[in-house]
């Protein structure tokens, strides 16, 4: 119970940090459309099924009056023993606050006795544009290059087991990047990436500038075995953060923000559907000046989201 | 160990965030005058007693009942007809708050006793509350300002980062 509370707390505290992202919350708390009917039948025409999951179905729909094409996710909780499911409450309340180009917009929430319909903007045009820009290349690694530097070994080895450990690895990579100013596993492809990760290196040599406690934490984050990697709570309690000289721009402070943001990212990621992939390709000079996330953007640590699939950049400031 | 500047000067972004908090905080408060109305004082008293009875110390998280009362006040101030259903509204606010904050909460954890509501009743009221609050279940509360006031506390009482991380 205590552990989960800590988790929930940190995501709540995150609001403090998230609200700083001006762009993200540009129109936060906009009111929902007021003429809200009881069902979607009257206003939307179902054009097809986009996807199906344990939660219910996602339909491609057309607004009968305006002709607007939307995606409607219907979540049926008729048989849920817990009344309105907590995942739904959290998902919707988060989505109500988020407003960013890289996050699918929630246009409306329609509720009935037994199910809730979430009306989202429809995204598939974006994906089409992306694929054409890459000349139809469908290499799965090319589709998610932005985060490759931060990808945990178990993901590179194609493990389907996904856990928060993956994010903590990424935090370790970013932590290292804050110190050296360069991606610590910045390689050309995932094979080199694995090679770099598994080659025996002495971290204390690379990170000679780092305090001993910081190095200790870094080693705990970059632990190859996901089961032995430190947890979010464990990392926050690490001696490195004791008696913090708490300058908001200090490395440690930013690291805390990053760690605290993980539960929210996690939550967003479990809803793969709601995230628009960010197609800002690090190797594409058109979208990035020097081929990687500029070190400045780590200033707003929150902006740098070491996520696996779909990449989510919350407010990447220039 | 670097020392903190004696007077904390927020950056533009931080100042902006705080301004935004002050702006949005009011949207997470009940209508003005809500707390001084005698009827409201009575229904709040009832709601607090119900919530306190259910959320005993065995559930460690003290923020849950706080959040529940935030939902309750906001909902009650905009739905005057909810007076007659105070117990149901209070319990549903509590279940919603618990679901926001913890992962293992189940509606069955509400002890059966004086108030027995079935799942359908609870679900219906939960949805009414969610709609009534426009699904904005993560309010800006005084706790949100902790990061901002922290440097001030630090100079007054030796308040450490640890205390804040624990909050």
Describe this structure in words.
- The complex is a heterodimer of chains A (318) and B (167).
- A 5-stranded antiparallel sheet of chain A has the order 1-2-3-5-4, covered by helices on one side.
- Chain A has helices spanning 2-18, 86-97, 124-133, 140-143, 153-156, 165-180, 190-198, 203-206, 212-221, 232-236, 251-270; strands at residues 44-53, 56-63, 69-76, 106-111, 115-121.
- In chain A, helix 1 crosses helix 11 (251-270), helix 6 (165-180) runs antiparallel to helix 9 (212-221) and helix 6 (165-180) runs antiparallel to helix 11.
- Chain A is α+β, with helices and mostly antiparallel strands.
- Residues 1-30, 34-38, 125-146 and 267-318 of chain A have low confidence and may be disordered.
- Chain B is mainly alpha-helical.
- Chain B contains 7 helices and no strands.
- Chain B has helices spanning 12-25, 38-54, 63-78, 86-101, 119-132, 146-157, 161-166.
- In chain B, helix 3 (63-78) crosses helix 4.
- The two termini of chain B are 24 Å apart.
- Chains A and B meet through helix 1 and helix 2 of A and helix 1, helix 4, helix 5, helix 6 and helix 7 of B.
